[in-house]
Every structure is written in structure tokens, then in C-alpha cells.
Amino acid sequence: MPGIVIVGVQWGDEGKGKATDLLGERTDWVVKFNGGNNAGHTVVIGDEKYALHLLPSGILSPGVNAIIGNGVVVDLEVLFAELEALHARGVDTSHLRVSANAHIITQYHRTLDKVTERFLGKRQIGTTGRGIGPAYADKINRVGIRVQDIFDENILRQKVEGALDQKNHLLVKIFNRRAITVDEIVEDLLSYAERLRPMVADTGLLLNDALDAGDVVVFEGGQATMLDVDHGTYPFVTSSSATAGGAATGSGVGPNRLDRIVGIVKAYTTRVGAGPFPTELFDENGDFLRSRGFEFGTTTGRPRRVGWYDAPITRYATRVNGITDLVLTKLDILTGLDQIPVCVAYDIDGERFDEIPVNQSDFHHAKPILEYFPGWKDDISRARTFEDLPLEAREYVLALEAMSGTRISVIGVGASRDAVIVRHDLVD
Ligand code: GDP
Ligand code: IMO
Ligand code: MG
Fold first, then answer.
1. Which atom of ligand 2 is found nearest the CA of 133?
2. d(Cα 19, Cα 24) in Å, to the nearest integer?
3. In the chain, at which end, N or C, are there fewer CB atoms within 10 A of the end residue's CB?
4. Ligand nearest to the CA of 237
């Protein structure tokens, strides 16, 4: 029975939250396996709009067991603020469980994220400033604080001392900031311990048991393929494994439990923060996509960079993740354009590249080779079958499908929960 992974294909904000929500009624478990509150998922249910950062979107579906997996970095203040905001709106979150092995984002991670970005100057990554990179750096450096550590004050104190030792030298001597005391961190983390205790579990065991019992488990990826620390446009990436492999390591199930890999891809491209983006638009077409698509960050409110659809990126994501199904979102945003350009390959110093070049310096100055597809004028937001779409929209979708190396199973035609066309069932 299905373990279904949801991953972003491009640079994030493809509409992963909506895709998880779409599966909601047929999902028993949803697990966030990477990232932290750098993510921003907007889900529209009826007249209600929910913006979630740390919690998986699946928590909005009644009766679904939500898991924060070991691969996540957890800011406890944000965790409880989000839970309280959902309680206030009547959402039941009692099914949430948090991995004992997930790492904690502390105040020093948030501070370091901001000061290192400032020091990078022109070379800055444009992080969300949430402490994500420094928290993962500590994890890999083996000086991180895990969720389970806050239940033993002695251990916690020792670990915080170890972590702050070098950091205070850095903060004071290099970054000209005040030193952070062990006491203030320990006190802050301990203040969450009793509220957190009932949520903490061996989440890998829970998930394996659920899969053994035939439950449907959705692994909800944050960020996206091109932001993945291994497979993205390094160093302009996030610090976690946002691709399908991360679903296994970040949740404690074997890769053979992942039956379907669903890639979420927008009908055009967006990116927040710095880094290469071959199809980026700086003209009125860019303004059109940004305002029509409401492309402003859910987490930071920054205007998103926008560009045309990039077919080699989808092909790359299909390979890297083993995508079995694509969900093409925001097709409705393209309505009204006379023609729709699609990047089919790149021109790099006069040479044609059909795939993303191996050398990233080449990618930085790749020019898109565009193919033009006829646009459509009719409103498509009420289309519910593929045949309801105008001919030009169908041809656009079929062309993207042919270039992607996998099938387009679902098409998004509006922000609301039901504004989708399902061509192939994602759970079978
Ligand atoms: P995520 O980070 O991948 O979950 O995506 P975000 O929530 O940051 O951004 C996607 C935005 O697009 C959200 O505001 C969604 O409500 C919206 N959205 C998702 N699918 C569609 C669609 O098919 N059409 C339109 N118009 N909006 C959509
Ligand atoms: P969702 O899940 C878009 C980007 C940041 C920055 C880089 C590193 O909503 O798709 P970080 O704070 O993670 O160290 O920042 O990654 N970034 C995102 N961009 N959507 C996201 O999440 C993102 N999470 C991180 O803008 O360029
Ligand atoms: Mg987002």
C-alpha cells in the first residue's frame, strides 16, 4: 500500500501544500521529512486560507496523523505558535507526533543565519533567516541539540555549552555581537519540555507499523529539487535533502516503502533568494506572472523572481527523484497570454545543451532556447476534466508532459481545494 512522496520540482512554492491537502481525505499519515519553518505552504479551504511553515499541511485534514520526522529542524517557539493558531481556528492537532531525533533551532542559529548573510554581502544566498543552515551545520558537525535532549537538563546543558563554545568566539570577535549565555538557551528550551513531552515518539517505528498495516502515508517535502543541498544549485540552496531520497532518511523508513513519487511543478517558474535562473523575466511578462500568480513569499513576503517554464529542470527532477507522477499547478495563471514560451534547452556560449550543464558556472549564464505555444483566453478555473480545457491548454500540457519523461497526473486550475483536474489517481 502506498507510501506517497511529494516533492517540489523547481525552486519551491510550486503548490506542494495544496497537493498534500488534495490527498487529505485518503491519507492516514502525513510526515514532514526535511527543512523547518523556512517553508511556507498556503492551503485554501472554502473561504479559509491557512499559511503553514513548520507543520505539515496534512495536519489540516481531520483524522490525519501528522509527523515531524527526524530530518526536520524544529524551532519550538514556532511549533507552539502554529499549533495555537490552528487551535484558535478549531483545527484538531492532537494527532501530531515529533521525532525524538529531530534537531532544534535555537536563538544562536537564528542569529548566526542573519549575521553570516550580512557578512556575505553581494555573495549572500538570501536565506529565510530562520536559522535553518546553522542548525543543519551543527547536526552534521555533531554539536546539534536534539528534541530528546531537552528532557535531561544535564545533557542539555553540556550540549549547549559545547555548541556555544566556538560560536561565542565567532559572534563576539568576528561578528561584533554579544555573547549568548548557556543559561538563557537552556532556560528557553526547558520552558517547552512539558508541552512537548506528550508529542515525542519513535516516529520511524510508528510509520513503519502504519505502512505494514496498509495505511496511506504521505511524505511531504519542503523546498524543492533545485534547492536540495546535493542536487540543487549549490551554494544557492537550502541545507537539507528536499528530494525523494530525503523522505527515507528524514523519516526512518526504507526507500522500498516509497511507492509513488509525486513531483509538484508550476506551469511557469519562480525562485526566492539568489542563484541562477535561466528563464527569469525582467519585463512586463514577469510583472504579469507575479501579480496574476500572487508570487510573494509566504514566509518572508519577498516578491518572487519569475520566469517561463523550464523543461530541462523538470526532466532533471524526474531523474533525481524518480518521479512517477507530476502535478502541474497554476495553469490558470497563464490564461490570457497570446503565446506561451517554454524553455526546451539552453544556449551556453553558442553551444546547445539539452540538459542542465554539469558545470554550474555554465548554468549561471545559460540562455533559454524557447519554443512558443499558442495561448488561450477562456477562463479555465472551472474545468474539472481534461476535455473541459481549451485545445491550446491541452496542447500546452501534453507538450510539457512529452518533455518531462513522466506523466502529468493532476492539473491545478485555481487556488481552492477542488480546483483540480485529475487524470490519474495518485493513490491506487
Ligand atoms: P508550496 O510552498 O509548494 O506549498 O507553495 P506555496 O503555498 O508557497 O505557493 C503556492 C501558491 O499557489 C499558494 O498560494 C496556493 O494557494 C496557490 N496554488 C496552488 N495551486 C494553484 C493553482 O492551480 N492555481 C492557482 N491560481 N493557485 C494555486
Ligand atoms: P517551500 O517549502 C522557496 C530558499 C531561500 C533561500 C534558500 C536558502 O515553501 O517551497 P534557507 O532559509 O532555507 O537557508 O534559505 O532557499 N528557500 C525557499 N524558497 N520556497 C521555500 O520553501 C524555501 N525554503 C527556502 O529563499 O534562497
Ligand atoms: Mg512555499
1. 14
2. 9
3. C
4. 2
Locate cell 517540489: which residue? 8
- Tracing cell 485518503 back to the chain, one arrives at 26
pLDDT score for 51: 92
Please state, in angstroms and rounded to a whole number, the distance separating the CA atoms of residues 64 and 58: 7
pLDDT of residue 428: 80
pTM over 0.85: yes
pLDDT, greater one: 373 or 42: 373
Can you list the domains of the chain with their CATH numbers? 3-93+202-422 (3.90.170.10), 103-197 (1.10.300.10)
Task: Choose the catalytic residue: 21, 32, 41, 149.
Answer: 41
Q: What pLDDT is recorded for position 372?
A: 98
> How many residues in the chain?
428
Percent of the chain with pLDDT over 90: 93
- Residue 45 has a pLDDT of 87
Atom of ligand 2 nearest to the CA of 224: 10
Contact, 368 vs 343, CB < 8 A? yes
Band of residue 1 on the pLDDT scale cut at 50, 70, 90: low
Ligand nearest to the CA of 129: 2
DSSP 213: T
- What does the pLDDT look like over 51-93, one tens digit per residue? 999 999 989 999 999 999 999 999 999 999 999 999 999 999 9
Distance CA(29)–CA(59), nearest Å, equals: 9
**Alpha helical stretches, state H, 220-376:** 244-249, 284-292, 311-321, 360-364
Contact 328, 389 (CB under 8 A): no
Q: Record the cell numbers describing residue 244, joined without a space.
A: 525523494
Instruction: Tell me the residue type at 3.
Output: G
Segment holding 206, helix H or strand E = helix 203-212
What gap in Å lies between CA 57 and CA 29, rounded to an integer?
11
Distances from the Cα of 251 to the Cα of 129, 381, 405, angstroms: 25, 36, 28
In the three-class reduction of DSSP (H, G, I as helix; E, B as strand; rest coil), residue 174 is classed as: helix
Other C-beta atoms closer than 10 Å to the C-beta of 136 total: 24
Condensed to tens digits (0 to 9), the pLDDT of residues 272-300 reads 999 999 999 999 999 999 999 999 987 77
pLDDT in tens, 7-24: 999 999 999 999 998 898
Instruction: Give the Å distance between the CA of 118 and the centre of ligand 2.
Output: 17
Distance separating alpha carbons of residues 335 and 55, to the nearest angstrom: 33
The C-alpha angle 412, 414, 417, rounded to 5 degrees, equals 85
CB-count burial class (<10 Å; 0-12, 13-18, 19+) for 227: buried
Instruction: At 345, give phi and psi (nearest 5°).
Output: -165, 180
